[in-house]
Amino acid sequence: MVQQPIRMLVVDDSLLYRKIVRDALEAIPGVEVVGSAGDGIAAVEKIERYRPDLITLDLEMPRMNGIEVLDQLRSRQWSTKAIMISGANQSDAERTMNALRRGAFDFIVKPRTDSIEHSRQKLIHDLSERIEAFRIKTQRVQPTIPVPAKPASLQESWRTRASGTIEAVAIGISTGGPDALRQLIPQLPADFPAPILIVQHMPPMFTRLLANGLNSSSALNVREAQCGNPMEPGNVYIAPGGKQMKVVKIGDDVHVKITDDPPENSCRPAVDYLFRSLVPVYGANTLGVIMTGMGSDGLHGCRELKNAGAKIMVQDEASCVVFGMPRFPIQEGLADEVVPLQDMATRIQRSVASKSLV
Predict the structure, then answer these.
(1) pLDDT of residue 140
(2) Catalytic residue at 201?
(3) DSSP codes of every residue in 185-248
């Protein structure tokens, strides 16, 4: 089956940056650039005319800004989705998080490089990942990453191996994650009996804003993790962007450790890195959760947790923005349960309370 090209519109008030983004998009296979616009009003007119699948959308523009364009997309019920082009300062990050709440598909941060060509190459890399995620979501394309056959040792149910209570919940999540977490975390009670660790693929600064937003709407204490944070029930620890997060045991106490260890699966923070650290500390008394996201980060960590007797829960395809990360544990036979997003808080609580997924 021949894939249809992803039709895209470039929206930015800078003529130079429109050209840079357009050149980057035209270098990505399977993308057709249908036009460009220098402000929000022109963007809305061209979206109505061309009905692109995706737009790259600047935040600050004359006449109508990027947030207002998103509001237009929603009010007119157009299917066009937006990839936000964000700056790296505090105000840009805050506006980008607002854009995600208003329906933006994803975002990238404007490259800071020493040449236009380096910027173009970085844009090609970052945009390619988001466009492929969008293609998988809208065209039901299977991810191209090969999945190994399920090892025979994993045929046995966790119920015959796991023992004790759930002492830690670890969540791996990426594209579509902020909105999914905003639906999940506020449903959990203040007396939740285990710590929750989250790896959300995001750059520095954005993870802190995500943590602050979740904290303000949740009974749980949500924070961007810092080195030395003790693992305590009712607390949520979000890995800081640009760093790796793991847990370490010192005596009888378990703490967060933040490191500059290399990326894994091109990710820092990486789900595999966190999940792997849970094995010697919590082992079978871990609940690993994989939610919406592009790629396969978390697959190897799920395998190691499962071998230790831990439980694995994944989000179902229908409620994922991108069914990439959850697909792989399912295909390898690692998932104990596949759960819609709207039911996940209940299932997590039940699992922790009952020591089993029932």
Answers:
(1) 62
(2) yes
(3) GGGS-TT-SS-EEEEE---TTHHHHHHHHHHHT-SSEEEE--TT-B--TTEEEEPPTTSEEEEE
